[in-house]
Design a protein that fits this description.
The protein is of the alpha/beta class. The protein contains eight helices and ten strands.
């Protein structure tokens, strides 16, 4: 099976020769289609920088990133806009909803900007039903809880059926109840809709929903864990995550 996302020798350096910060220092990784991959590490380890390089928000210092065989560094103009709008879906920690648009209008925003209206209504209804947002979809963000906002944001990220979802600390602004609900929904989208998800998080609870986790330290991959799907419970996987995070100087409280 070929990877949907392939990263080779990725580097992102800041500063000058006498004072260089190696945010990413030679990362290699593959993400397979339909995979739920977690990226973990302490604050400043380089995990969000990695995600932003994939999103083309940040330009790498060196190395290559390919999505479905296309080299992102070669994209420009319309092709780059299409990649950002259609090929990836982005889920932010702080939701990034437009305050003067309803939930429905926020979800439809990528369609307004990038097209794809033909199949949008069916897709919208499917996501509204699955994410349980029917009661809030016509409200404004100011009328929603944090968990409701993030589920609206998840629908927006999924509406154009992107090749990969980039989720940057999506539970960071949520309480434990809403974090559990959101992660359960993302896990379901992965297993039932074959959505490919790349989750960046420092939260072992959130990471325990993934099928594989890469741990980053000082811009390098430090360790890898795979969940034994048939035999390992999420709780047991969480316990293994905690042990690795303890070595990195991080962790979290009780499993959800």
């Amino acid at each position: 099976m070929k990877p949907i996302l392939k990263i080779e020798s990725l580097k992102k350096y800041y500063g000058r020769q006498d004072n260089i910060t190696r945010a990413i220092d030679g990362i290699d990784l593959n993400v397979m289609e339909g995979e739920f991959l977690g990226i973990m590490g302490a604050s400043g380890s380089g995990k969000s920088t990695l995600l932003n390089c994939i999103a083309t928000v940040i330009k790498p210092t060196g190395g290559t990133i390919e999505l479905n065989g296309q080299n992102l560094s070669k994209l420009g103009g319309r092709k780059l806009a299409e990649y950002r709008g259609k090929e990836i879906g982005y889920l932010f920690q702080n939701f990034e909803l437009v305050d003067n648009l309803t939930g429905r209008e926020n979800i439809m925003l990528p369609i307004s900007l990038h097209g794809g209206k033909a199949a949008s209504e069916e897709r919208m209804n499917k996501l509204i039903d699955y994410l349980e947002i029917g009661q809030i979809v016509d409200k404004f963000p100011s009328q929603m809880s944090g968990g409701e906002k993030q589920r609206i944001a998840a629908a927006r990220a999924m509406i154009l059926n992107p090749k990969i979802i980039l989720a940057d600390e999506p539970t960071g602004a949520l309480d434990s109840k809403n974090a559990k609900l959101l992660m359960g929904k993302l896990e379901g989208l992965n297993s039932e809709d074959n959505a490919t998800i790349l989750l960046v998080t420092h939260d072992s609870n959130a990471a325990s929903y993934c099928s594989r986790i890469l741990f980053i330290q000082d811009g390098k991959i430090f360790h890898e864990l795979r969940k034994e799907k048939e035999t390992e419970s999420r709780h047991d996987f969480y316990e293994r995550i905690i042990k690795v995070m303890a070595q990195l100087g991080g962790g979290s409280a009780n499993v959800l």
